[in-house]
Amino acid sequence: MSVDAAAIPVMLVTGFLGAGKTTLIGRMLDHPAFAGSALLVNEAGEIGIDQDLLTRAGSPPPQLLANGCVCCVMNDDLGLALRDLDLRRREGSIPAFARVIVETTGVADPAPILARFIADGWIQHHFVLSAVLTVVDGLLGARTLETYSEAVSQAAHADALLISKADLADADGLNDLGTLLSATAPHARMLVAGSEEAAVERLLEPFRLHGLAPMSRDVEQDEADHRHRHHHGDRLVSTTSWRFEERLPWPVIARALDALVTRHRGNLMRIKGMLAVSDTDRPVVIDGVQDIFHPPRLLDGWPTDDRSSRIVMISRDASSAEAMDELQRLLGIALLASE
After folding, report:
1. 10-20 tens-digit pLDDT
2. What is the spatial distance between Cα 179 and Cα 168, in angstroms, rounded to a whole number?
3. pLDDT tens track for 54-71
4. 3-state secondary structure string, the chain?
5. What does the alpha-carbon distance between residue 268 and residue 239 come to, in Å, rounded to a whole number?
6. φ, ψ for residue 91, nearest 5 deg
7. Domain 225-338 class?
8. What are the C-alpha distances in Å from 182 to residues 165, 175, 219?
9. Do 140 and 253 meet the contact criterion of CB atoms below 8 Å apart?
10. CA 116 – CA 86 distance, rounded (Å)
11. More confident of the two residues 116 and 135
12. The pTM is what?
């Protein structure tokens, strides 16, 4: 249940067109805390770095940047891009890097990218997805969420939501956007910043320079079982979370999750959790995208004093609540059988 100790963390940065992710990444690479990073940016995109605009066609070689960073352009094939980076690093043709930052296009649904991390055995061995950061426009974010399904998926899959341009938005508008985002992704940490410089400083707090601590924000307020449905235009996003204290053997949990995914195939967008199991004192992180689960991984320790298990399920329909009910039933049966 452990990840390769040499695996390099990857931060996925997504956000709709004009949200400000390109400028944010440029500021991140200027910050000493992100020195020694490798950046993968889609071929069709543009990234502002050190006042220069990097635009490439074809498959150019990596470009060395300030602070020991390197930038590569990928042609919508994350697996090949990561393999090329790793090969060049081992050959010594580019500097060693401590992390990878992947910038998606503004209209990209992050689900296929997350699924690639889970399905590709080579990627699993060499890299580990540490966090999904979604940048949301503080001025136009609410309208974008109501109009574009891609923006809804970007928010729903986030580990952290960064509201940009907060200095240009009015307080009521920011509050409304925050409410909308909390309904879409109640499991995600929400950060608000007016400038890119301030945004980077805010990022350094929860990300601890290498990735957001999984499930570091409470998945509910005062209830052990929290459910929420929210309409974005004619689309329904359903999010359900559950916290429980019982400790079960990992094989029992794994069988229940396998049965759950099989029964609800095609309906769930994401399942994410941090679990206390009887097999170990270390927390076990689970992460599933659509019908595919990443191998469970052990963290070195709990991020807080809270040792309870917590799971979040997200779906594009009402199936997350039904799936959570079924998981509770399956684990309840397992608990009774173990007594």
Report:
1. 999 999 988 88
2. 18
3. 333 344 567 777 667 888
4. CCCCCCCEEEEEEEECCCCCHHHHHHHHHHCHHHCCEEEEEECCCCEEECCEEECCCCCCCCEECHHHCEEEEECCCHHHHHHHHHHHHHHCCCCCCCEEEEECCCCCCCHHHHHHHHHCHHHHHHEEEEEEEEEEECCCHHHHHHHCHHHHHHHHCCCEEEEECCCCCCHHHHHHHHHHHHHHCCCCEEEECCCHHHHHHHHHHHHCCCCCCCCCCCCCCCCCEEEEEEEECCEEEEEEEEEECCCECHHHHHHHHHHHHHHCCCCEEEEEEEECECCCCCCEEEEEECCEECCCEECCCCCCCCCCEEEEEEECCCHHHHHHHHHHHHHHHHHHHHC
5. 10
6. -75, -20
7. alpha beta
8. 18, 10, 11
9. no
10. 17
11. 135
12. 0.71
User: 26: alpha, beta or left, given left = phi > 0 and alpha = psi -120 to 50?
Assistant: alpha
Query: Which residue would you say has higher pLDDT here, 171 or 268?
Result: 171
Confirm whether 8-207 and 225-338 share one CATH topology: no
**What are φ and ψ of residue 338, in 5° steps?**
-85, -10
Do 188 and 161 form a contact (C-beta atoms < 8 A)?
A: yes
The pairing of beta strand 99-103 with beta strand 8-15: parallel
CA separation for the pair 23, 40 (Å, rounded): 15
Of 154, 148, 85, nearest in space to 122 by CA: 85
Q: Parse the chain into domains and list their residue ranges.
A: 8-207, 225-338
CB-based contacts of 261, cutoff 8 Å, min separation 6: 268, 271, 288, 291, 293
- Look at residues 81, 80, 79 and name the one whose alpha carbon lies nearest to residue 71: 81
CATH superfamily of 8-207: P-loop containing nucleotide triphosphate hydrolases (3.40.50.300)
